[in-house]
């Protein structure tokens, strides 16, 4: 592929990295990443991936922009309140980098549509930027069954965590760690929850880093590790996690062969 | 006896179960925690009967949802 002059300039700080170079930048421009959820995590992840020159970015979200989103979901701006999140996301990505082709899916993921969305563009890497356990288990199971690498992350209050799943690599999946969603009543109530806006920026940017490294074949991903971050103590911890032989979806005797729609607890905050 | 919890050495009395250890460590929402004992995940049903031993390494891993509602 021949780079245009403006592309050589736009990506010059990548190209001068010996580990990336022209070849690496070409890989990024030829790659496809799916970002599920354009909220606290998905927003910064999608923006950095766009700036990096990921050729195709898929955005999945069935929501519209709400004023209360803007404290952390930096892909959306005040003028976007009321707009479809996928459309607002597309506009921001196009403003950052017109090289990127944006595919929008204006829907929430369910057991009915997720595999079709993942396979629509044969995405190379998937980012879980969702905000509820039902979606997190669904994305995990779909990626395990479809053999797609993905980055899982969660944020709450002043804490965040992430891990990376690489198929056929013996790496643990999200369900290896947490076999089923937490029992109802165990999850923090809406009032107890909340999140420091910047948590999505820290953890979402790390998810984008994992996607870029995976595509470029650089360094070590978080496959087999859970990285946790506590903003109050400024501590990062990298915890070794092992594949769970009893895992329902990727264990020795998997019982989950079709996707499950768990109930999302209601919250009217 | 000494055990390691999330990388930190703790001095606890003998024959403490996972459930008791969660209490000792002041874990507010034990239902939101998954436990790895010496690199192996422990089934929730075993929390109340499985006792930790000298030099065991225990990791508490917390469920984290999303930012908006945290559910």
Description:
The complex is a heterodimer of chains A (269) and B (71). Chain A has 269 residues and is of the alpha/beta class. Chain A has helices spanning 5-10, 12-15, 21-29, 42-52, 85-96, 114-120, 133-146, 174-177, 198-216; strands at residues 32-36, 56-60, 101-105, 125-128, 150-156, 159-165, 225-230, 235-240. In chain A, 32% of the residues lie in helices and 17% in strands. Chain A has an eight-stranded mixed beta sheet, sandwiched between helices. The relative contact order of chain A is 0.15. By secondary structure, chain B is mainly beta. Chain B has one domain (2-62): Ubiquitin-like (UB roll) (Roll), CATH 3.10.20. Chain B has one helix and five strands, in the order E-E-H-E-E-E. Chain B has one helix spanning 18-24; strands at 2-5, 8-11, 33-37, 40-41, 57-62. The model of chain B is unreliable at 67-71 (pLDDT under 50). Chain A binds chain B through residues 37, 39-41, 68-69, 72, 130-133, 136, 154-157, 159-161, 176-179, 182-183, 185-188, 190, 192-195, 199-200, 226, 228, 237, 239-242, 244, 246, 264-265, 267, 269, and chain B through 6-7, 29, 31-32, 34, 36, 39-41, 43-44, 59, 61-71.
Layout: helices, strands, pairs:
The complex is a heterodimer of chains A (269) and B (71).
Chain A: H1 5-10, H2 12-15, H3 21-29, E1 32-36, H4 42-52, E2 56-60, H5 85-96, E3 101-105, H6 114-120, E4 125-128, H7 133-146, E5 150-156, E6 159-165, H8 174-177, H9 198-216, E7 225-230, E8 235-240
Parallel strand pairs in A: 1-2, 1-4, 2-3, 4-5
Antiparallel strand pairs in A: 5-6, 6-7, 7-8
Chain B: E1 2-5, E2 8-11, H1 18-24, E3 33-37, E4 40-41, E5 57-62
Parallel strand pairs in B: 1-5
Antiparallel strand pairs in B: 1-2, 3-4, 3-5
């Amino acid at each position: 592929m021949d780079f245009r002059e403006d592309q050589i300039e736009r990506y010059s700080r990548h190209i001068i990295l010996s580990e990336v170079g022209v070849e690496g930048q070409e890989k990024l421009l030829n790659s496809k990443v799916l970002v599920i959820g354009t909220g606290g995590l998905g927003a910064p992840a999608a923006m950095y991936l766009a700036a990096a020159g990921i050729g195709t970015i898929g955005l999945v979200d069935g929501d519209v922009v709400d004023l209360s989103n803007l404290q952390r979901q930096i892909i959306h701006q005040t003028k976007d309140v009321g707009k479809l999140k996928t459309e607002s996301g597309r506009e921001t990505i196009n403003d950052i980098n017109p090289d990127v082709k944006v595919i929008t899916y204006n829907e929430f993921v369910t057991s009915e549509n997720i595999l079709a969305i993942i396979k629509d563009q044969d995405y190379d890497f998937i980012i879980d930027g969702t905000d509820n356990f039902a979606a997190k288990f669904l994305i995990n199971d779909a990626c395990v069954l479809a053999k797609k690498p993905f980055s899982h992350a969660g944020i709450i209050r002043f804490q965040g965590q992430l891990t990376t799943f690489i198929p056929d690599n013996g790496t643990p999946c999200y369900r290896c760690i947490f076999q089923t969603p937490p029992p109802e009543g165990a999850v923090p109530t809406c009032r107890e929850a909340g999140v420091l806006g910047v948590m999505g920026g820290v953890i979402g940017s790390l998810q984008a880093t994992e996607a870029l490294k995976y595509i470029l074949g650089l360094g070590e991903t978080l496959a087999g590790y859970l990285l946790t971050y506590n903003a109050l103590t400024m501590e990062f911890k990298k915890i070794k996690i092992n594949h769970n032989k009893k895992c329902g979806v990727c264990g020795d005797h998997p019982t989950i062969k079709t996707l499950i729609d768990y109930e999302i607890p209601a919250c009217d905050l | 006896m000494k055990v390691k919890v999330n990388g930190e050495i703790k001095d606890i009395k003998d024959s403490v179960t996972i459930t008791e250890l969660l209490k000792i460590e002041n874990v507010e929402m034990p239902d939101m925690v998954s436990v790895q004992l010496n690199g192996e995940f422990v089934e929730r049903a075993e929390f109340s009967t499985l006792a930790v031993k000298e030099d065991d390494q225990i990791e508490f891993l917390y469920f984290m949802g999303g930012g908006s509602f945290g559910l």
